[in-house]
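Lab notebook: predicted structure, single chain.

Context: the supervisor wants predicted structures on file for every construct in the current expression panel, including those that have not yet been purified. This is the next one on the list. No modifications to the sequence; it matches the entry in the shared construct table.
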Amino acid sequence: MNSRNMGKTILRLRKEKNMTQKELADRLQITHNAVSKWERGLSCPDISVLPELAEILEVSVDELLTGDTKADKWQHFKELNAADVKEMAGLLCRCVSLALSIGGLVIYLIGKLDLADFCVLLCTAIILLGIDSMGRGNVE
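Prediction complete. Output recorded below exactly as produced.
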């Protein structure tokens, strides 16, 4: 990560904690000017400061260095709307249905599944396809 990206990460995390540069600097026993330089991308924290900085900002050192915090990892899910969720649920139903059908057939053909259990798998797959169809409005 370059110093500019790291600075943006530190700035964002500090603001999420409602801390001033001076408050962060005091906790790290450094000057607020050093924090300011980090956040503007003019320098990076010394490696010896990273563990304590990460602890204060409640992230791992890795997350601090990469800028990929846990919140960022889930941000795209927060931006999903109902139509996206419905589409993903339908896709999941179709994928599981296909996996049950093909997997069940293969296991049945190699003799590791009896006919009754294979029929249960196929019925489950058909039910999933029905749920998907109802969700897409294809069934009245």
